[in-house]
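Following up on my earlier thread - several people asked me to post the actual chain instead of describing it. Fair enough. Here it is, all 178 residues.
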Amino acid sequence: AVKLLEDFPLREICEKLENFGGVLGRMQVVHQNPLIIVDFAHTEDGMEKIFQSFLHKKIVVVFGAGGDRDRSKRPKMGLCAAKYAQKLYITSDNPRSEIPNAIMQEILGGIPQELRNHREIHLEENRAKAIAMAVKNLKSDEILLILGKGDETYQIIGKETLHFDDCEEVQKALVETQ
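Reply from S.P.:
Thanks for posting it. Predicted structure:
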């Protein structure tokens, strides 16, 4: 595709792409063993595509939903996560002016009792704590997907925009678990 768009020799294009690590925040591998991935997926459809990439794997997921945004997607996100993941850490994303626990309850509300009975579900309002818990409890045969923020390096809580980076939080949690 690059060859069609650009007037560069194919060899030069291949050399440039050889070390291309991908787009930050899109299926970004933060740790290899165990596998921990950060992705921007923040809709049911986006989450489903990520989960389908790891069928037949034991999936652990950390995710939330943004405040002051489309509330109808929250229960759908909860159901989607529960269909694929064995462990769910439902947390804050960018709650903005909404109460984080109310957002989390709307997500949880989309998960039928039958699935709740067969899933390990944690509600943790503090995203850093949710990530730390997920990393600490992650088993070697599980993969951890941290969804919703991708390459964002902030979290909007109330009227404040605070520094927050999922990848940094994973690294801190890995240090603490060693």
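The beta strands are 28-31, 36-39, 58-63, 87-90, 120-123, 142-147, 154-157, 160-163. That should answer part of your original question.
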